[in-house]
Design brief:
Blueprint: E1 10-23, E2 28-43, E3 48-52, H1 59-66, E4 74-79, E5 82-83, H2 89-92, E6 99-102, H3 116-127, H4 132-145, H5 162-174, E7 180-184, H6 192-209, E8 212-216, H7 220-226, E9 229-234, E10 237-243, H8 244-249, H9 254-261, E11 274-277, H10 302-306, E12 312-315, E13 318-320, E14 345-348
Parallel strand pairs: 3-8, 3-9, 6-7, 7-8
Antiparallel strand pairs: 1-2, 1-4, 4-5, 9-10, 10-13, 11-14, 12-13
C-alpha cells in the first residue's frame, strides 16, 4: 500500500489546536484546552498512517484540523504541496475535493431527511457542473464501488444497517475523487462482525484508487491490520511513530508498551505481563511542563518533570519521545512520580 513518491502528500509541522476557556462575569478568556499541542506528521501518497491513543488524547481533533474543519491555532499543513494552514474557509473551497473525511458515527453524519442518492450526490452538486443525468450515473457508480445496491438510491438512512450507512458515508467521501481521506474511527460504532468488512472495503478502494489514509482508531488490532506506519498520541502530542511492525514488535515509549500490553491475545502462553497504568491523566488545559506522560510513568525522574522530550530516532524511521532513549538514567531519588506518587506502571498477570 505504501506509495513510492519522494515527497509526502500530507506534511504537518508544529500543529496546535487550542480551544479557549472563558470564565467570570465578563466571560473573559482564562485559559485554553490544548487538544493538539505541537505535532509533526508526514503521510506519503498511497500510504495508511494509523493514529492511536486513548479517548481524549486529541486524535479526532488532529484529523479535523488537518482537513481545516477548524481554524488552527498554529502550524503548517501542506496537502499535495499546497499550504492550507492559513487559508480562509472561502479560499479552501477549491481544495476541498482532494481531501475528505469518513466520520465515526454513520447515523449522526448522514442527513435523515435526504435520500441516499441526494447524500452521495451533494458533493457533486456543490463542486461540479455535472448534469442531473451524469450525477445520477456517478451516484450509481459510487454505490457499486462500496457494495450498495443501486436500487436503494431512493431510500433514507434509517432504512439501512450501521455497516450500510458507513458504506454510504464512504461513497460520499469518494464522490469528488479525493487523494487523501481521514478515517475518524470509522468502525467504532459498528458491530464486530461488520468491522472487518468495512476495513477490507477501505483497503480495496485504496488499492484500486490510489488513496492515502489517516486512519484514527483506538483498536490497536485493526490498526495493525490496515496501517503501514503508526503514530501513538498522548495528551495532544505524538510520543512514538514508526513502521507498523517495528512499533508493535519493539515499542520504545512506556505508554506504547502499556497500550500494546492491553491488546487481547488469543493464546495465553504468548502474553507478556500486562502493564497497568495508574495515576491520573493530566488536564489538557494544564498539561505538565515536561513529559506529558510523567504522572503515570514509573520511570519518571526530575528531567521528565521539567523538560519536554522530543522525538528521536530509535531505528529505521522508528522514533519516540522519551528521555530514557538518549542514555539518561533515572536516579534512585527521581525514579518515583511527582509529589511522592507511587510507581505508576505495574506488572500484572
Amino acid at each position: 500500500m505504501t506509495g513510492g513518491a519522494s515527497a509526502p502528500l500530507v506534511a504537518v509541522r508544529g500543529l496546535k489546536m487550542h480551544f479557549p476557556i472563558y470564565g467570570g462575569l465578563l466571560r473573559r478568556r482564562v485559559g485554553a484546552v490544548k487538544a493538539v499541542d505541537g505535532i509533526d506528521l508526514e503521510i506519503m501518497a498511497g500510504e495508511t498512517l494509523g493514529l492511536v491513543g486513548e479517548s481524549g488524547c486529541g486524535k479526532s481533533t488532529v484529523g479535523r484540523a488537518i482537513l481545516r474543519l477548524y481554524d488552527i491555532t498554529e502550524g503548517s499543513i501542506r496537502i499535495g504541496g499546497t499550504e492550507i494552514g492559513a487559508l480562509s474557509q472561502a479560499a479552501l473551497r477549491p481544495h476541498r475535493p482532494q481531501m475528505q473525511m469518513v466520520f465515526q458515527d454513520p447515523q449522526a453524519s448522514l442527513n435523515p431527511r435526504m435520500t441516499v442518492a441526494a447524500i452521495i450526490g451533494e458533493p457533486l452538486s456543490e463542486h461540479t457542473t455535472l448534469s442531473a443525468g451524469d450525477r445520477t450515473a456517478r451516484v450509481h457508480e459510487l454505490m457499486d464501488a462500496v457494495g450498495l445496491n443501486r436500487a436503494f438510491a431512493g431510500r433514507y438512512p434509517h432504512e439501512f444497517s450501521g455497516g450500510q450507512r458507513q458504506r454510504i458515508g464512504i461513497a460520499r467521501a469518494l464522490a469528488l475523487n479525493p487523494r487523501f481521506i481521514v478515517c475518524d474511527e470509522p468502525i467504532a460504532a459498528l458491530d464486530v462482525s461488520i468491522q472487518a468488512q468495512v476495513v477490507n472495503l477501505l483497503e480495496e478502494l485504496q488499492d484500486r484508487l490510489g488513496l492515502t489514509y489517516l486512519f484514527i482508531s483506538h483498536d490497536l488490532s485493526m490498526v495493525r491490520h490496515i496501517a503501514d506506519r503508526v503514530a501513538v498520541m498522548y495528551l495532544g502530542r505524538i510520543v512514538e511513530i514508526g513502521p507498523r511492525d517495528a512499533l508493535y514488535d519493539t515499542p520504545a515509549h512506556p505508554y506504547t508498551q502499556a497500550l500494546l500490553s492491553a491488546v487481547p491475545e488469543p493464546d495465553p502462553d504468548q502474553r507478556d505481563g500486562r502493564i497497568v497504568l495508574t495515576g491520573d491523566v493530566p488536564s489538557p488545559a494544564k498539561p505538565p511542563a515536561g513529559c506529558a506522560f510523567v504522572t503515570r510513568c514509573r520511570h519518571a525522574f526530575d528531567r521528565c518533570r521539567s523538560e519536554k522530550p522530543v522525538l528521536q530516532a530509535v531505528a529505521g524511521g522508528h522514533m519516540a519521545a522519551c528521555h530514557l532513549l538518549d542514555g539518561t538514567s533515572p536516579t534512585t531519588a527521581g525514579a518515583t512520580a511527582a509529589s511522592g506518587a507511587p510507581s505508576s506502571i505495574q506488572q500484572g498477570a
